[in-house]
Design the sequence.
């Protein structure tokens, strides 16, 4: 039977690269994004079915899901929607926090609310594209890393219970992947990957049962180590190596 996937945030970056990679492997694809023109381009090149939606609007997700599940049986749903803007503490902006919270956290909440009734009892895999930034807060990244950390925490809390319902909830925690969002960074990004490389790493682990897909490994393990350090030592490292003080 032909495998099926629904990729949300498929118009560019990792989402587009995933669509291309899965299409080459013969998957039937449902593709969603807000940008009609970009989405249509990906749909044409992959043979997928494009469905416009705004992941920050629950009604939009519910309507799209009704269309997808009425016409197909995706075993894999990927949430690749996100937003990013660096923010120095001296330019604190609550509006930016609200915007990034909707895109990076609440969109995942709305997706789960939409998907669980459709997948309960029939099985399926949900992949949330989180970020290695979820491991620990870093300067300039508070509006981004805070909702990412919330998404990771939510997924950790829900995974055991969802497995009992036949639903595998997993997370992708990539490091730096070239995109219109990472292009905003004013600093050199270590171990920067192209979207196609990131997509290949994700696809290679789709059929594994692990909770997390993290890459590149060197960066992921370094950030995980920082996550374990006591605050006094952690902030000393941040002052020296990040803030250069």
Sequence:
């Amino acid at each position: 039977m032909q495998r099926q996937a629904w990729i949300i945030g498929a118009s560019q970056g990792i989402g587009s690269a995933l669509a291309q990679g899965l299409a080459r492997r013969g998957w039937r694809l449902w593709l969603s994004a807000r940008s009609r023109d970009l989405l249509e381009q990906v749909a044409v090149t992959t043979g997928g079915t494009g469905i416009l939606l705004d992941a920050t609007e629950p009604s939009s997700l519910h309507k799209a899901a009704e269309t997808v599940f009425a016409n197909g049986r995706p075993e894999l749903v990927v949430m690749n929607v996100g937003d990013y803007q660096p923010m120095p503490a001296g330019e604190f902006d609550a509006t930016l926090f609200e915007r990034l919270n909707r895109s990076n956290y609440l969109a995942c909440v709305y997706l789960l609310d939409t998907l669980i009734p459709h997948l309960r009892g029939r099985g399926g895999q949900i992949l949330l594209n989180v970020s290695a930034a979820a491991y620990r807060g870093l300067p300039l990244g508070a509006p981004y890393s805070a909702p990412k950390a919330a998404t990771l925490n939510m997924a950790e809390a829900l995974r055991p219970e969802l497995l009992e319902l036949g639903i595998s909830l997993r997370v992708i925690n990539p490091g730096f992947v070239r995109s219109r969002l990472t292009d905003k960074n004013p600093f050199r990004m270590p171990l920067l990957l192209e979207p196609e490389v990131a997509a290949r790493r994700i696809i290679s682990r789709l059929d594994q049962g692990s909770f997390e897909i993290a890459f590149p490994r060197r960066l992921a393990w370094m950030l995980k180590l920082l996550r374990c350090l006591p605050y006094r030592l952690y902030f000393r490292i941040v002052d020296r190596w990040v803030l250069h003080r």
About this structure: The CA atoms of residues 41 and 69 lie 23 Å apart. The chain has eight helices and seven strands. The domain at 4-242 is CATH 3.40.50.720 (Rossmann fold).
